[in-house]
Write a structure and sequence with these properties.
Order of helices and strands: HHHHHHHHHHHHHHHHEEHHHHHHHHH
Helix content: 55-70%
Structural class: mainly alpha
Number of helices: 25
Strand content: under 5%
Distance between the termini: 38 Å
Shape: globular
Largest sheet: 2 strands, antiparallel
Length: 565
Amino acid sequence: MAVLLVGLLWPATRAMPIAWIIALGVGFFAWNMPPDWLAAASITGVMTALEILWIVFGALLLLYTLMQAGAFDRINQGFATISDDRRVQIVLLGFFLATFIEGAAGFGTPAAVVAPLLLGLGFPALAAVIAAIIGHVIAVTYGAVGTPIIVGIQDPLASAGFQDEIAQGGYTVPEYSTEVAAWAATYHTLVGFVMPLFAVGMVVYFFGDRNERSLSPAWEVAPLCLASGIAFAVPYWLSAWFFTAEFPSLIGSMVGGAIIVSVLKAGYLLPDSHWDFPPRSEWPSHWVGTIEPGENGATTGRPNKATATDGGIPSGPEMSLARAWSPYVLVVVLLVVTRAVGPISSFINRPAFIVEWQEILGTGISGSIAWMNVPGFWLIVSAVLAIPIFGMSGGQVSAAWREAGQKIVSPLIALIFVIAMVQVMINSGAHPGAPAGGSMIVVLATATADLLGPVYPAVAALIGALGAAMAGSNTVSNITFGGFQFEAAQQLGLPTQIIVGAQAVGGAIGNLVAIHNVVAALATVGLVGQEGRVMRLNLIPLVYYSIFVGFWALLFSYVLFPSAF
């Protein structure tokens, strides 16, 4: 997969079917997986892919609804009142808004929502995806109101029978998981507070003047970027240590975003110069896909401003900024309420609202689609409620649904095959007669630990990143490797919560190159087929994050906190 996507720049629609076939072959010949288990693993992968496509469709539908209503014009004007500098927009949208949405929804929603917004502001599609994915990575460990910690660390450790070992350290499993979350926040704070500057630097260097590539425009806004990173990181870290594992990303983005917006409106930290992309005529073809960036909103080759004559509300001064933003505000409110309010969360997760297939083909593999709990449902609800908010005509509504449906076709093949491949790898150690060494992914991790021995802390995060890169989920990575990291730390005499905390961070940074997250983000901006370019560029922040988290893990384990449990 790496060779075809990153090396040869094949589109995922070509590379992933081949990768799936290879996974089937390895599963059958090396892991002795029966054909029914191979088929069942692939089927559950298809079900997971459909759940992700549900999110992408919702994000696309909301995007096209706002485009048809002309709300993007008004949103653009709102940003212009703060700054129309692209670097400032990356900080406000690509960092603060993306981290907030990650804290509320997770599951790839930030890139699927923020990338189209940046596209609508006039960003090249490729730059919009890069900024959105890099900008939100610090928040992924606590995405979807703490799901990677609660579902990915706490529940598996409890179900796998680690209670006795954890009790020896004086913790219950929930207390231990909270401690892991706090250490993960420490890594993220020390390493990730520079991510606003990283995102800006990636965009200005790779999407600026191609004849004079330079990081100078990024250094000009370094005070704003670093202040933004610190304004996010301090309440984020305090929340993880002293409040809860569910809300660090939400609290960090809300508090930090409010501080920085207030400072910018007061006239401080704004850049002295103005930076923008080169003229549209100079953009390479791979920067833009089937959705054309607009100076006043994304377009698709047709006028996108609603007018009084076609039954819509005119964009511009006639539409209030609150009205233009209201569908996205509604999304965030719905996502927070449906995850943070226990009775509502329990209601939408009732069996009546879940499509489930237990023991597929008689195997021990099961799959489900929680169609109401998934953010895609609430994105669609917001798009429907936007119709009366904007007074849209029937023609505008049908056009939005039609365009969203057309754009969902391209990522379908790539997502189905990549997740089917991942499920084959994950389930390769679960069938009767499976090798004692565990699944393909566990074997990879075990070999790494055995090879490295005492320097294992340096690669603990990379193991988590491997899991997330393959599965596209911090939660799945934690489920797959959390227990393994705990056992490896015990065998090597290392502080377990520091190592498992590094795992939780690795599961976040792996999302930088997680193929189906990349496909989903590219689909929302009409650029499916450029997965390899995104992954190649995102290897830069991945390497940075991995090296420095590994450094701190070594320092914590052997120098600063060697006596921790």
